[in-house]
Amino acid sequence: MEGVVRHTFCKAERLCGKAANGLFVGSKSSFAHPYRYIVKKRPALDQDQASVSVLIVVPKRNVKRAVGRNLLKRRTREAYRLCKHNLIEKAQAKGLHIDIGLIYSTKEILDYKIIDNAVRAIVEKVGSRL
């Protein structure tokens, strides 16, 4: 089973709790429509279970109904899950742990294709800046 890429998004790859608060301090922010994204790099520690952690936020201010917020988070997770492997390989090769925050910043619910293109562009930008 060597060389097979598994497209999973496990709990260790999700940024939550107190670690999410640290993402907003001393990190770099940028914009790729429809996301504002925040990236924080640090040396990988032994206790890190994943080399890349992601926080996905859809503010209630932008999308009022929970159904819409959940739909956008699901689409974002799916897009990230399918394109994360190059970023993980680069982070492991450099011995880094990367925290990424994806903040949805438009009021309309966009199609999956637009979300997928935006997430792929963000992952490529973060990977190229390592």
Explain the layout of strands and helices.
Blueprint: H1 18-23, E1 28-32, E2 35-43, E3 52-57, H2 66-83, H3 85-94, E4 96-104, H4 112-128
Parallel strand pairs: 3-4
Antiparallel strand pairs: 1-2, 2-4
Helix pairs in contact: 2-4, 3-4
How many helices? 4
pLDDT < 50 runs, ≥5 residues: none
Trace the largest sheet across and list its strands.
1-2-4-3
The first-level CATH class name: Alpha Beta
CATH topology: Ribosomal Protein S5, domain 2
Note the main sheet.
4 strands, mixed
Structural class: alpha+beta
Structural features, described:
With 130 residues, this protein is α+β, with helices and mostly antiparallel strands. It has a single domain, classed as Ribosomal Protein S5, domain 2 (2-Layer Sandwich), CATH 3.30.230. The protein is built from four helices and four strands; from the N terminus they run H-E-E-E-H-H-E-H. Strands 1-2-4-3 form a four-stranded mixed beta sheet. Helix 2 (66-83) packs across helix 4 (112-128) and helix 3 (85-94) packs parallel to helix 4 (112-128). It starts with 17 loop residues before the first helix and ends with a helix.
